[in-house]
Design goal:
mainly alpha
Length: 256
């Protein structure tokens, strides 16, 4: 996105501070990943990568592609005994087969999972899209009645969250990603001008949704809650564009 904007000379002066701030964010992420590497031996944002990969392999069934059929049978037995659950009751005993039974990073599990995925990437990718399809009707807002917030700032944040997320479902995010992309293309074909706001929303919403489903295996509503502000902004801009197209005189005169 930034490189595309740099291609246009008239955009470069606007991007200086944005690029600078982006580089700071990237540096912070790299530094944090380095600390994780120092402690757990994996250059990532979390040492939970093996457990998440394992859950994804169980859900997709790619673990059955491993050449060691003895370990495959052991994993399958644990998976079936726990009613095909992807929680800790399944992943912890499976990780124990590789010499680990807690939350600490386990390189053997990560290596096993990556090997299984590489043996049948189509099955793994198909599982991701199947999971996305199954969560179309999931609401972004999950009411947590057990949580009580006494601080007024927290209460305000929760109220705003409820206001933004009550009507939003994960399927709405898919729709907005598609519509923003089509809108960007339509504007460019019509005027040969890239609408950076719509393009940015299309790119960032798509990346947020895809990376959430690729990088995790459950609680997608909670993990996608950060997309709510962008989703509301997208809806607002699309409605404004529709109203402007239907009533062009209102856009010129400023009438409601």
């Amino acid at each position: 996105f930034w490189l595309l904007r740099l291609y246009y000379r008239d955009e470069r002066s606007i991007l200086k501070w944005m690029l600078f701030l982006s580089l700071i964010v990237i540096a912070v992420i790299q530094l944090y990943s380095y600390f994780v590497f120092q402690k757990f031996g994996d250059f990532a944002l979390t040492p939970m990568t093996p457990r998440h990969l394992l859950a994804a392999c169980l859900r997709s069934g790619v673990y059955q592609n491993a050449p060691d059929k003895e370990i495959v049978q052991a994993i399958h037995s644990i998976y079936e005994q726990n009613s095909r659950s992807l929680g800790y009751d399944t992943t912890t005993p499976v990780m124990a087969l590789f010499g680990d039974s807690d939350r600490i990073f386990n390189p053997a599990v990560k290596e096993f999972c990556l090997d299984c995925i590489q043996r049948n990437p189509r099955q793994y990718i198909a599982s991701i899209f199947h999971t996305m399809e199954n969560h179309i009707n999931a609401s972004l807002y999950i009411q947590r009645s057990t949580m009580a917030y006494e601080h007024p700032l927290f209460k305000t944040c929760v109220s705003v969250q409820i206001l933004l997320c009550t009507f939003l479902k994960i399927g709405h995010l898919y729709f907005l990603c598609f519509v923003e992309g089509i809108t960007t293309l339509w504007i460019y074909i019509r005027s040969r001008v890239l609408d950076w706001i719509h393009l940015g929303l299309a790119v960032f919403l798509t990346m947020m949704v895809l990376f959430t489903f690729v990088g995790s295996y459950a609680a997608f509503s909670r993990l996608l809650i950060h997309t709510a502000p962008l989703a509301v902004l997208s809806i607002t801009l699309l409605l404004h564009r529709i109203i402007t197209a239907l009533r062009p005189e209102a856009a010129v005169s400023g009438q409601p």
